[in-house]
Specification:
Blueprint lengths: L1 E2 L15 E10 L2 E7 L4 E5 L6 H9 L24 E9 L2 E12 L2 E9 L2 E2 L12 E4 L11 H15 L3 H20 L2 H4 L1 H35 L10 E6 L1 H8 L2 H14 L1 H7 L10 E6 L4 E2 L5 H23 L4 E4 L8 H12 L5 E5 L13 E6 L2 E4 L2
Parallel strand pairs: 1-3, 4-14, 4-15, 9-13, 13-14
Antiparallel strand pairs: 2-3, 2-5, 5-6, 6-7, 7-8, 10-11, 11-12, 15-16
Helix pairs in contact: 3-5, 5-6, 5-7, 5-9, 6-7
Length: 394
């Protein structure tokens, strides 16, 4: 199914950000096939719950490193009743011209499906090759409890912020987690005393990767904090956030050169082998740090703010990060906002739409009620999603 843009529609004059001009899906979630042309830098998807709005955003999120905005196993993205694979393809246009990116799972005889990547229909080695063409940031309802939930969720959120700036960060985090599992296994086997050579080697790897991860987090937060403080407005409907990172290794990185920080971290690991063996896990390292967020104008912990204030604070934080991605990479990111406006009052909703209209990147929004987006009708491409289909909103 191909859906063309309405007559007269188009990207705003002078729009220089990266934008999707065409989205094609095959056997992805609820879409057996989809081929839709995109005509504006704000795209609004409306439709009933379960129609597939979030599925479309998830497909776009797979253009960035990681497992997408749902963090799903890729095999789960394949349409039930399909052939076991799926394909996501976009045509992008921006300052560097047009490019076509594609990714998906391809079934293989007598083997699990393999993920593939293509740029202008030519094979690409990995998702990191897409980083020179597109960056993606998102906000979903699952993130609403970020400030009150477990520290692990905030670390994951922070690593997503870093990953949008540094596509290599995900590989470092994955390697670090593998090294930690290896250390924990050696400790469980009781090698902390009699066979220290294996632990020495793996702790060297843990220290090198851990310091690199902590340094990337510290740098990203410093740059994001500077951008937020430079543009903060006390009376903004989306309050500015105060950011800090709590963790022993992050503190080391902020005070010592990298090599010295690695040596000190390695010494901590060695000194804590017995304690870590008893605990069944490594207790010190960037896997134990926590992102601290404050409601800037009130000077209070974000967790103590009202539900509405937390949502507004999170929106402001994600949009500030989008501006940082553009400033750092030269690529205005795709901004995916799932069910973004449902819980805002009319004044804050109107302020949000004005803010989005002035951002450099392409913005995709979803919501069940088309009336929620009435103010955007003259400034956005309005599409209605039904099961497996997408068409202009009548």
């Amino acid at each position: 199914m191909t859906t063309s843009p309405p007559a007269g529609a188009g990207f705003p004059l002078g729009f220089a950000g990266t934008g999707v001009r065409r989205l094609a899906l095959a056997d992805f979630r609820s879409f057996a096939t989809l081929d839709v042309e995109i005509s504006d830098h704000i795209v609004v998807l409306t439709g009933d719950n379960g129609a597939g709005k979030t599925n479309a955003l998830e497909a776009l999120s797979l253009l960035s490193p990681g497992r997408g905005l749902r963090r799903a196993e890729l095999a789960d993205c394949a349409r039930k009743g399909g052939g076991g694979g799926f394909a996501v393809s976009v045509e992008l246009s921006g300052p560097g011209g047009k490019v076509r990116l594609g990714t998906g799972l391809e079934p293989q005889p007598e083997a699990p499906p393999a993920r593939k990547f293509r740029i202008d229909r030519e094979p690409a080695p990995s998702i990191r090759a897409f980083g020179g063409h597109v960056r993606v940031v998102w906000l979903t309802p699952a993130m609403d409890g970020l400030f009150t939930g477990p520290a692990g969720e905030r670390r994951r959120f922070l690593d997503r912020l870093v990953l949008a700036l540094d596509p290599e960060h995900g590989a470092r985090v994955n390697a670090f987690e593998r090294a930690l599992r290896g250390r924990n296994r050696l400790l469980e086997e009781g090698r902390s005393a009699g066979d220290g050579a294996w632990l020495d080697a793996i702790e060297r790897e843990v220290a090198e990767l851990g310091v690199a991860i902590a340094a990337a987090r510290v740098e990203t937060l410093a740059r994001l904090s500077a951008l937020i403080l430079a543009g903060r407005e006390r009376d903004s409907p989306f309050p500015w956030a105060g950011l800090a990172l709590r963790g022993e290794i992050e503190a080391l990185v902020g005070e010592r050169p990298a090599l010295e920080a690695e040596d000190l971290f390695r010494g901590m690991l060695r000194a804590n082998r017995t304690r870590d063996a008893a605990a069944g896990r490594t207790l010190i390292g960037p896997q134990a740090s926590d992102l601290q967020v404050r409601h800037g104008p009130k000077g209070a912990e974000a967790a103590q703010a009202s539900t509405g204030e937390q949502k507004a604070l999170l929106v402001g934080l994600v949009l500030a990060h989008a501006r940082l991605v553009e400033a750092a990479s030269g690529i205005a990111p795709l901004i995916l906002l799932d069910e973004i406006a449902a819980h805002f009052d009319p004044l804050r909703r109107s302020a949000l739409y004005d803010l989005l209209a002035n951002l450099g990147g392409q913005i995709w929004l979803t919501g069940a009620d088309a009336a929620t987006f009435a103010e955007l009708e003259s400034r956005a491409q309005m599409l209605r999603v039904t099961t497996g289909r997408m068409a202009p909103l009548a």
